[in-house]
Amino acid sequence: MKEIDVALTDYGLAFECSVFAFVLIRNKCEDQPLSIWFAFLFASVGLASIMGGTIHGFVHEDTLSEAIFWRATIVSIGISALTAWVIGAKILLGNLGQRVVFFVAALNFSIYLGYVVFFNQNFVVAVANYLPAAIFLLVVFAILYNRNQQRLVFLALAGVILTFVAAAIQQIGIGVHAEYFNHNALYHVVQAVGLYLIFRGSMFVVELREKNGMI
Fold first, then answer.
1. Confidence of residue 214 (pLDDT cuts 50, 70, 90)
2. Pairwise CA distance, residues 54 & 192, whole Å
3. What pLDDT, on a 0 to 100 scale, did the predictor assign at position 208?
4. Calpha distance 3→64 (Å, rounded)
5. pTM score of the predicted model
6. Which of 84, 106, 161, 185 lies 20 to 30 Å from 98, alpha-carbon distance?
7. Rounded to whole angstroms, how far apart are CA atoms 179 and 53?
8. Segment 172-194 mean pLDDT
9. What are the extents of the domains in the chain?
10. What is the 3-state secondary structure (H, E, C) of the chain?
């Protein structure tokens, strides 16, 4: 195994996300679509983590396998961006606004999909595509917390912020140990905490929206 710390934390993140997705899919509520979109968000992050863990742990560089797994990783990140747009719209906007956001997000994903599969697989492209969606979700949770002052909504907001912190850790290269627990492994751990907070908040937001309609 090439990078055992990165691979194992990636797989741990994937397991966490699969549990969250399963719980949300099984969640019995009237606003099932919102719960399912949250499940898609966690499932896409989990899929990206599985691919990333496999690349870091087992796949050799400059091989066909690496090309396939890497493309699958950045496509999964694109799916995460799509789901973040839809979730934010479903929480904050009315039916017309939701349809507009979904159309634009789906169109953007289609363009992104073709571009990263056939032309450019640079991680910067994935980040540039995902960042606006993550900021949108952050703003939505901030507005929702300002309206309701609920602790679990704040947890979701804090969770999104933690995912930004995790990304900063990865980009800056902050790690515990260069060989045994590097910046990518620490990134996964911080991201796992952030995703847990988002999950806790998502369960509450689904119930809140079920009771109140558009929040």
1. very low
2. 18
3. 67
4. 19
5. 0.91
6. 161
7. 16
8. 88
9. 4-212
10. CCCHHHHHHHHHHHHHHHHHHHHHHHCCCCCHHHHHHHHHHHHHHHHHHHHHHHHHHCCCCCCHHHHHHHHHHHHHHHHHHHHHHHHHHHHHCCHHHHHHHHHHHHHHHHHHHHHHHHCCCCHHHHHHHHHHHHHHHHHHHHHHHHHHCCHHHHHHHHHHHHHHHHHHHHHHCCCCECCCECHHHHHHHHHHHHHHHHHHHHHHHHHHHHHHCCC
Give the distance, in angstroms, between the CA of residue 151 and the centroid of all CA atoms in the same chain. Answer: 21
Report which of 208, 206, 171, 211 is spatially closest to residue 187, judged by C-alpha positions.
171
Question: How far is Cα 92 from Cα 47, in angstroms, rounded to an integer?
Answer: 27
Q: What is the mean pLDDT of the chain?
A: 90
Nearest to 87 by CA among 37, 129, 44: 37
CATH number of 4-212: 1.20.1070
Which residue in 171, 162, 159, 149 sits closest to 200, CA to CA?
159
pLDDT tens-place string over residues 110-165: 999 999 999 999 989 999 999 999 999 999 999 999 988 888 999 999 999 999 99
